[in-house]
Amino acid sequence: MRTRPLKVALLGCGVVGSEVARIMTTHAADLAARVGAPVELAGVAVRRAGRPRPGVPGHLVTTDAAELVKRDDVDVVVEVIGGIEPARGLILSAFEHGASVVSANKALLAQDGAALHAAASAAGADLYYEAAVAGAIPLIRPLRESLAGDKVNRVLGIVNGTTNFILDKMDSTGAGYSEALEEATALGYAEADPTADVEGFDAAAKAAILAGIAFHTRVTAADVYREGITEVTAADIRSARQMGCVVKLLAICERSRDGRAVTARVHPAMIPLSHPLASVREAYNAVFVEAEAAGRLMFYGPGAGGSPTASAVLGDLVAVCRNKVAEATGPGESAYTELPARPMDDVVTRYHVSLDVADRAGVLAQVATVFAEHGVSIDTVRQQGRDGDASLVVVTHRATDAALSATVDKLRALDSVRDVASTMRVEGE
Ligand code: HSE
């Protein structure tokens, strides 16, 4: 074993960072044996000094992250502060000063992954980010390395624990969205400002990262179609149950039908109870990867939390440190296919449309005509009368999203349609 230790600058000492520091200290001997050199903290950058940080020696704590990443003795920078700045500037500075980087920053990777990879490559350094997607679940490395010889066609999964918890509560208790969100907040699953989770931004960033790696191209968060769960109602959940389905917030990354592009999307969808993703409960994550030779692979586990996320960070830290010892670097960005990202309109899916209509002769025919005019074939229709009105639930066969949304726009304009109460895509069949 080489004796000069590898020095690690830890940026951020919150829920994840403090776990990274703790595991580095308590497992120091094992980590050294696995890496082939001792791995030691060079410094821990925090926003506010003076707070008690058990397990982190006080002399290592600094508020000057910019200075820490420039230090000559720093081999690896671990960034767990999140957000775009100052994280981006610090990571670029780390590369300029010769360090490799381990990051858990999905928003940054989904926005500026290409620039960060270019900076890593120019510096002859590593950029690893297993913890950016689905916490402890190994996904980035399997896609980047284990499946590097296969052709991935689809990645489909639940990549946000907070929204899965909320939807699961709505499903199991009959609660409405606000009530389930309150419970998620009280239990610490949802943050005080839950926007990033409930509006699908967090899942969209993860989908962009997964799509880029899976299809060897560049996909940013801006390329991902996004709908959150704030409009999902208790009635939607009940309606899903009547169809033998459950509602999940899905991230779906696919090759386009002609194979010349990719699509990435995040939205609530009904999936059959028989689908393995239907049994993913509470705040767990699960991702299916469909590859030509491998078939369907499923990855399941805790997608958030300090300890699970730290596990992924430590795995990357060991990999990067091993590369340092071997004076090598791991795989960099693979974006050679240059497949463009296509908009949602091109996606082929099914719709569940719930309408409040006037209950009189010819209304069903009118509604059916609108579907037919747009080339959308109806699979099932369910109607329930109610004081002169009726509630109508139409489930379609597969059609382009453009045709389905044009159909819904036209339905809204019909006099006999009082309201399009909800539309939801149906997936997983
Ligand atoms: N807030 C995320 C979730 C975890 O609820 O899954 C971090 O990505």
Would you give an account of this structure?
- With 429 residues, this protein is α/β, with parallel strands linked by helices.
- The protein folds into three domains: 6-135 and 306-326, NAD(P)-binding Rossmann-like Domain (Rossmann fold, 3-Layer(aba) Sandwich), CATH 3.40.50; 146-301, 2-Layer Sandwich (Dihydrodipicolinate Reductase, domain 2); 346-426, ACT domain (Alpha-Beta Plaits), CATH 3.30.70.
- Helices cover 36% and strands 26% of the residues.
- The chain has 14 helices and 17 strands.
- It has helices at residues 15-26, 28-35, 65-70, 87-96, 106-123, 140-146, 161-173, 177-186, 195-198, 201-215, 234-242, 306-325, 363-373, 401-413, and strands at 6-11, 39-45, 61-62, 76-79, 100-103, 127-128, 152-158, 225-226, 245-255, 262-272, 284-291, 295-302, 348-358, 378-386, 389-396, 399-400, 417-426.
- Strands 7, 8, 9, 10, 11, 12, 13, 14, 15, 16 and 17 form an eleven-stranded mixed β-sheet that branches. Strands 3-2-1-4-5-6 form a six-stranded parallel β-sheet, with helices on both faces.
- A hairpin with a 6-residue loop joins strand 9 (245-255) and strand 10.
- It is elongated and about 85 Å long.
- The mean pLDDT is 96.
- The structure holds L-homoserine.
- L-homoserine binds next to helix 7.
